[in-house]
Amino acid sequence: MSATTAGRLPRRRSRRRRTWRRAIGLAAETIACLLILVWTLTPLYTMVSVALEQNDSIFSGDVWPAHPTLAGFWTVLTENYWYVARFWHEMGNSLIIGLVTAVLTLAIGTLTSFVLGRMKLRFSWLVSNAALMTYVIPMSFLAIPFYRVMQNYGLSNTLWAVIFVEVTFATPYAIFIFQQYGASIPIELDEAARIDGASPWAIYRRVYLPLMKPAMVAVGTYALLLAWNEYLYMFLLLSSPDKMTVPVALGQFLNSDEAPWNLMMATAVIYALPPIVIYYAFRKHMSAGLTMGGVKG
């Protein structure tokens, strides 16, 4: 055997080992992805399958309903059952809380980031860091203090109570993202506007806000979804039926001996549709805003 042939054998074996390692790695990644996909979609699949089932056949053990029906969805949409008699009113309350939370979060976040980042105030870093420090305490730990505060100010059992709570928790994140994103906007634009006689308010409205749109879409969507998916503070702060939201109303399903699981899941599916539409409608803007905010300093 020549030296050339002897040298080729180890290289071939090395290539084969690398090929096998790649194949094994790819197979492991595929299996892991499939397991994660199944783990993620199983609750959603169960929710939809129960919504399509008749209430007396829910615990039949079938993987998929033997006779799927949309009657549960129609009952919810037409409010043709006492459990869902105020569904659209509750949906409206959830929408009001989500939209107002998003608007207030954007207003407070952009104004704060503009003042701290563009007007060069002393100790601005202390204010932004102090805002982020609020996330050290979990939201659930502050439930009783917030309840006492809202009672003291006469805001208990009002939509504003939940809105103020959600804005409190969404604003620090908004300030952080806006400050990081705003650092990518050249300060020379502000200086040029000042030379032309623009006031700080005019610079904020005509220069800062238009350039912050990607970040505003990302943060606004985040704030809206945060409020939309809230349950603890809605349950704690809202007590009367006319102030109730869909998540709290879903919890009321379990307060009776008769639990229409198909209607509960149909309500949950309908309630989950707006966030899905919002996310996919603004997905590109959210990625651009959050990515820019994460890499610019």
From TrEMBL:
Coiled-coil blocks: none
ABC transmembrane type-1 domain segment(s): 91-282
Primary location group: membrane
Biological process annotations from GO: transmembrane transport
PROSITE patterns from the UniProt entry: ABC_TM1 (PS50928)
Matching SUPFAM superfamilies: MetI-like (SSF161098)
Keywords: Cell membrane, Membrane, Transmembrane, Transmembrane helix, Transport
InterPro entries in alphabetical order: BP-dep_ABC_trans_perm (IPR050901), MetI-like (IPR000515), MetI-like_sf (IPR035906)
Protein name: ABC transmembrane type-1 domain-containing protein
Membrane-related topology note: Multi-pass membrane protein
Keyword Transmembrane found: yes
Membrane-spanning ranges: 20-41, 95-116, 123-147, 159-178, 215-239, 259-282
